[in-house]
């Protein structure tokens, strides 16, 4: 079966209702579905419906992740807060934390919220978009299961640890720089395995110090076994700036663990001291800066737009079609996907399974049923 396009209403309603069937409250299910499908709207297949069953539903079923998210504010000041997610849905933790950071920023100029004991929160760029839509500059980051080696190392110590930044502009899309501090991320290898794509040479290092090649599934298996690791932005060694990616990677780990007194490094392996699967216990941070507390939202948007247009209008290298700014490609993919989300053969099977398990066979029909 080739990829088939499912219209947005059908896939959104199905994901919401399926989350609810697995015990997620309706309001939370809507948040989880919106974060999940926003990834597909932006063309980030590695974090969209591709992860619906294997990352979220399977973790709920196994008891690793709780479908009901009981947020607890451990400490709060006018501009800051520390939140415990108690192993609930990471998307709900992320949404509520950025919502709180924005509220504080609107009143005091800046707001920062950190969270501990959370789970995978989807694409980090969702939360910076929340901030820019509110006229704020946004920042967020999360730690993750250890898989990235430090410069000159071959062992996965920290996660892919995205450091994501958003700035409101006067263009149809805001500046939204969403990327891991590693060259690539585990979700990309999961996606590569599904479509039969090989690892890009130079993105993974083996424990022998040599680049790993071959299929995405084999590379991911080696990373999980500890015989290979992802590389930080810049790659092997220091000549191409690998130490810079390593520095940003570790900074995110520090921000996610030190301010919340959370877990870090190999404590995030998802395995307890007895070798049993446990909650990932991730940490996140969220920062919102209200532009109206400076020279104003209109000024910020105009100036940011001018800077973006300056970059795009600069001289291109020979053969290059165009210069992009962060958020532009995702905006264009969103426009191109107005009719729905493409679902590959592997994910089609997973959606069929979920549909059957939840008793939604008769209610939802997909294009591949024809």
Notable features of this structure?
alpha+beta; 370 residues; two-stranded antiparallel sheet; 11 helices
> What is the number of strand segments?
11
**Shape summary:** globular
Rg estimate, integer Å: 20 Å
Element order: H for helix, E for strand: EHHHEEHEHEEEHEHEHEHHEH
Mean pLDDT: 95
Unreliable segments (pLDDT under 50, ≥5 consecutive)?
Answer: none
Largest sheet: 7 strands, mixed
**Strand percent estimate:** 5-15%
Which class of secondary structure composition applies to the elements?
A: alpha+beta
State the separation between the terminal residues, measured CA to CA. 12 Å
Number of helices, where a helix is a run of at least 4 consecutive DSSP H or I residues: 11
Helix content: 25-40%
**Largest sheet strand order:** 2-3-4-10-5-6-7
Describe the 3D structure.
- There is one protein chain.
- The chain contains 11 helices and 11 strands.
- It has 370 residues and is of the alpha+beta class.
- 39% of the residues lie in helices and 15% in strands.
Secondary structure: elements and pairs:
Elements: E1 4-6, H1 8-21, H2 26-41, H3 52-62, E2 72-76, E3 80-84, H4 90-108, E4 110-118, H5 125-133, E5 136-142, E6 163-167, E7 175-177, H6 186-195, E8 204-206, H7 216-225, E9 228-230, H8 242-257, E10 282-290, H9 297-312, H10 328-336, E11 341-343, H11 345-357
Parallel strand pairs: 3-4
Antiparallel strand pairs: 1-11, 2-3, 4-10, 5-6, 5-10, 6-7, 8-9
């Amino acid at each position: 079966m080739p990829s088939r396009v499912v219209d947005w209403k059908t896939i959104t309603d199905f994901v919401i209702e399926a989350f609810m069937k697995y015990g997620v409250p309706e309001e939370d299910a809507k948040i989880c579905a919106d974060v999940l499908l926003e990834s597909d709207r932006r063309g980030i297949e590695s974090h969209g419906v591709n992860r619906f069953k294997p990352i979220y539903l399977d973790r709920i079923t196994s008891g690793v992740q709780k479908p009901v998210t009981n947020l607890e504010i451990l400490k709060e000041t006018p501009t800051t807060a520390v939140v415990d997610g108690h192993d609930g849905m990471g998307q709900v933790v992320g949404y509520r934390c950025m919502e709180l950071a924005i509220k504080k920023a609107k009143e005091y100029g800046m707001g920062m919220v950190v969270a501990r004991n959370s789970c995978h929160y989807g694409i980090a760029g969702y939360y910076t978009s929340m901030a820019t839509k509110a006229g704020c500059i946004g920042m967020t980051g999360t730690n993750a299961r250890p898989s990235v080696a430090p410069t000159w190392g071959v062992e996965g110590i920290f996660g892919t640890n995205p450091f994501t930044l958003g700035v409101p502009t006067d263009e149809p899309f805001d500046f939204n720089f969403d990327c891991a501090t590693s060259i690539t991320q585990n979700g990309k290898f999961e996606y590569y395995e599904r479509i039969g794509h090989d690892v890009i040479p130079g993105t993974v290092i083996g424990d022998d110090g040599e680049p790993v090649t071959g299929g995405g599934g084999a590379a991911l298996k080696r990373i999980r076994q500890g015989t290979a690791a992802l590389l930080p932005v810049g790659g092997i060694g220091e000549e191409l700036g690998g130490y810079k990616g390593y520095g940003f990677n570790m900074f995110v780990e520090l921000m996610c663990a030190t301010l919340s007194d959370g877990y870090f490094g190999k404590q995030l392996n998802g395995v307890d001291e007895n070798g049993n699967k446990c909650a990932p216990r991730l940490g996140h941070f969220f920062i919102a800066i209200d532009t109206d507390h400076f020279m104003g939202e209109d000024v910020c948007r105009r100036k940011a737009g001018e800077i973006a247009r300056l970059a795009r209008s600069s001289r291109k290298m020979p053969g290059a079609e165009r210069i992009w700014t962060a958020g532009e490609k995702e905006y264009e993919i969103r426009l191109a996907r107005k009719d729905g989300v493409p679902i590959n053969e592997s994910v089609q099977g997973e959606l069929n399974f979920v549909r059957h398990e939840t008793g939604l066979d008769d209610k939802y029909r997909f294009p591949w049923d024809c």
